[in-house]
Amino acid sequence: PATCWTVEECEARLKRELNIYEDAIERLVTVPLNRNQADAIISFVFNCGVGALEKSTLLKLLNQGKYEQVPAQLMKWVNAGGKRYAGLVRRREAEGIRRGRGWKGAA
Fold first, then answer.
1. pLDDT grade for 98, boundaries at 50, 70 and 90
2. Model-level pTM?
3. 3-class DSSP state for residue 103?
4. Which of 11, 28, 38, 61 is 20 to 30 A from 17, comparing alpha carbons?
5. β-bridge mates for residue 84, sequence order
6. Alpha carbon of 78 to those of 7, 18, 33, 47, 92: distances in Å?
7. What is the C-alpha separation between 23 and 28, in angstroms, rounded?
8. Element of type H or E holding 84
């Protein structure tokens, strides 16, 4: 049978998951992030997982302070099952451009 959750249960679960992602980012990212940049990385981790971030070139470059390379790295994560998905392209663009606000460094 399908599980039926209340809005409150959904919000509580989302909050718990976001806390896990925020904690992982605080542990893994060694350079300062502004709120928009942190939100973009949280969105990425929410979608791809902590393990994906841990092993990524994106994290290596970010921790080297190469903020400007983050949007291009995000765009490498647009495939699922070997197929490019327009929805993932839009998500990565949002993380890299709108949420990242240029990725010139933490402001």
1. low
2. 0.81
3. coil
4. 61
5. 79
6. 30, 22, 23, 11, 7
7. 9
8. strand 83-84
At a CB cut-off of 8 Å and minimum separation 6, what does 90 contact? none
pLDDT digits over 52-91, tens only? 999 999 999 999 999 989 988 988 999 989 999 999 988 8
Helix axes 7-28, 35-48, angle to 10 degrees: 110
100: which DSSP letter?
T
Please count the other Cβ atoms lying within 10 Å of the Cβ belonging to residue 43: 17
Other Cβ atoms within 10 Å of 103 Cβ, number: 25
